[in-house]
Design brief:
heterodimer, A: about 110 residues, mainly beta, six-stranded mixed sheet, three-stranded antiparallel sheet, about 45% strand, B: about 120 residues, 11 strands
């Protein structure tokens, strides 16, 4: 299975909105509504931000939202804040009962 | 409260076997609603899904690691394990264990344990 494709980096200014894309195939993202997004700070374990494409775990800011169209999922962060600067990883369930991650995107808040 | 705790040697020799255990507290591994998995992250790199095991012992593995990986579980002790054979320096990573729930991507991770492969 190939890793999902994410941009290596994105950036935005405080208050702006940014979107991180995650592209897969019909065997993963396109085949299920099972996509999740994780936020990771240096030296810390990943934190689940979005699951099942659009759902937020309790305690995650409503500024984080997810969507999907075809084989591409997206994470949108609105009202960008300095604390959002981190790495973000997408993940999808696959038709072979496995999971696959994206390569990760580093978000810089300018 | 759910707690997943990884444990095992922090240093493994090349060509040896990496063995880790995840101890689950605050939940039962016997539930059909859950399955249990491993993820790793080499220093400075991205996440890689390793594999999972369900309540009945059915396993799924990352095809790129399948020939070297074995995941097993002892539900009576609420523990599951990872064995990775024939390790090289490329297997040096932070290893995380996780609890998965059927029919959703909602999951819960441990804090991770660093394993270095070096002579």
């Amino acid at each position: 299975q190939s890793a999902l494709t994410q941009p290596a980096s994105v950036s935005g200014s405080p208050g702006q909105s940014i979107t991180i894309s995650c592209t897969g195939t019909s065997s993963d993202i396109g085949g299920f509504n099972y996509v999740s997004w994780y936020q990771q700070y240096p030296g810390k374990a990943p934190k689940l931000m979005i699951y099942d494409v659009t759902n937020r775990p309790s305690g995650v800011s409503t500024r984080f939202s997810g969507s999907k169209s075809g084989n591409t999922a997206s994470l949108t962060i609105s009202g960008l804040q300095a604390e959002d600067e981190a790495h973000y990883y997408c993940s999808s369930y696959t038709t072979t009962n496995t999971r696959v991650f994206g390569g990760g995107t580093h978000l810089t808040v300018l | 409260q759910l707690l997943l705790q990884e444990s095992g040697p922090g240093l493994v020799k090349p060509s040896g076997t990496l063995s880790l255990t995840c101890t689950v507290s605050g939940d039962s591994m016997s539930s059909r609603a859950y399955y249990w998995g491993w993820i790793r992250q080499p220093p400075g790199k991205g996440l890689e899904w390793i594999g999972s095991i369900n309540y009945s012992g059915r396993t799924s593995y990352n095809p790129s690691l399948k020939s070297r990986v074995t995941i097993s579980a002892d539900t009576s002790k609420n523990k599951f394990s990872l064995n990775l054979d024939s390790v090289t320096a490329a297997d040096t990573a932070l290893y995380y264990c996780a609890k998965y729930i059927q029919n959703t991507m909602r999951d819960y991770w441990g804090r991770g344990t660093l394993v270095a492969v070096s002579s």
